[in-house]
Design a protein that fits this description.
Layout (H helix, E strand, L loop, with lengths): L8 H25 L4 H11 L7 H40 L13 H29 L6 H9 L1 H20 L6 H7 L2
């Protein structure tokens, strides 16, 4: 029965908006934490330019300005993801949960795994959204460093989710859910 399930246009649009937003968020977060890290930029400036007249704070301000456009993209796509994520939660509540309950008895192992991947996604997306909002709005500033550490953990949970998601797609395509990719792209 489930292999004939059609996805509504709204479901498909939410899926692809969230996918695009997550890839931009991952990419900008990765760049900020790794190759375009503020301290890396400062050390590069120091090594290439005679900056003896500039203080460390001035160098950090220059690095922040260099990173500003990328960070604006991160914030824009964070807002897009938050709204799409909220819409998806509301949609699921209105339409009923659309993934297998991994705790149900008598459910096949494949469906249990699928349910756990969905739960994994929603928990970590909620954590990333919540910590991102706390950082942006300066909620719980006394714990800011811990909140930022938890938020940066998204750099690791996202690739794990993508790997699990694509593994599930391949498994579905070679089992009783053949055509799930075309249904998620075109709704057919």
């Amino acid at each position: 029965m489930e292999n004939n399930k059609k996805f509504t246009k709204f479901h498909i649009i939410l899926h692809w908006i969230m996918a695009l937003a997550l890839f931009v968020l991952f990419f900008t977060g990765f760049l900020r934490m790794e190759w375009m890290n503020k301290m890396h930029i400062v050390s590069t400036i120091e090594s290439k330019v005679a900056v003896s007249q500039l203080s460390g704070d001035e160098l950090k301000a220059i690095a922040s300005e260099i990173l500003k456009p990328m960070w604006q993209w991160h914030k824009l796509f964070a807002h897009i993801f938050i709204f799409a994520f909220a819409a998806r939660i509301i949609y699921m509540l209105v339409k009923g949960i659309r993934f297998p309950n991994p705790f149900a008895k008598g459910i096949a192992m494949k469906e249990k795994l699928q349910g756990f991947v969905y739960i994994y996604f929603y928990i970590f997306a909620f954590i990333s959204v919540s910590t991102g909002i706390c950082i942006e709005k300066h909620f719980f500033d006394a714990w800011r460093e811990s909140i930022e550490s938890v938020h940066k953990f998204g750099l690791y949970w996202f690739p794990i989710f993508v790997l699990l998601h694509f593994s599930g797609i391949v498994l579905a395509e070679y089992s009783n859910k053949k055509g799930i990719v075309s249904r998620m792209i075109g709704g057919d």
